[in-house]
Amino acid sequence: MGKRSNFERIERDFYPTPPEAVAPLLSHLPLRARFFEPCAGDGALVRHLEAAGHHCVRASDIAPQAEWSEQRCVLTRSPLPLGIAPLFITNPPWSRDILHRIILKLSKFAPTWLLFDADWMHTRQSGEFMQLLRKVVSVGRVRWIPGTKMTGKDNCCWYLFDARRQGPVEFVGRCQ
User: How do residues 122-164 score in pLDDT, each as one tens digit?
Assistant: First the structure.
């Protein structure tokens, strides 16, 4: 599961997004944001965002588990015609080869919010993506597996990538 655990990873990194991981992002989204969720899994992230007043215009996954989500690989197909959804918001697979390709692909089309480990931004591998990074919102540790007492071993952040804008990266520390 993580670099400091001996748990087996769940296939395709399917860890539904809990509401506590979404809460720090909400104040950074436009009012009633319209978004596309390209790694929707069972739709947990979509449900949390819609409960907060946002609107998912499309959801997809390579192995969708929600009946309203379409089967689509974000890496092999064009995400959407421009203008359909002004934002991408997703909890992508953390596998670096997949994650890095998602950053490069989606950030060309629209601002892209991704939830993954905080340690990534402190590694050399993140260097080539820093020019695309606009904002980091700290989340902390997340309880990925419902009903367990333990949180994950890695702190998490929401990262906003946007290839169409330049400027300094804004860092928002943890508020709670």
Answer: 999 999 999 999 999 999 988 777 776 766 678 999 999 999 9
Reading the block at residue 148, the tokens are 């367990």
* Per-domain boundaries in the chain: 27-172
- Furthest-apart CA atoms within the chain: distance in Å: 43
Pairing relationship of beta strands 155-161 and 112-117 according to DSSP bridges? antiparallel
Tokens of 7: 């748990």
Calpha distance 161→113 (Å, rounded):
6
**Which residues on adjacent β-strands are paired with residue 156?**
117, 140
pTM of the entire structure? 0.88
CATH pick for 27-172 out of 1.10.760.10, 1.10.8.60, 3.40.50.150, 1.10.10.60: 3.40.50.150
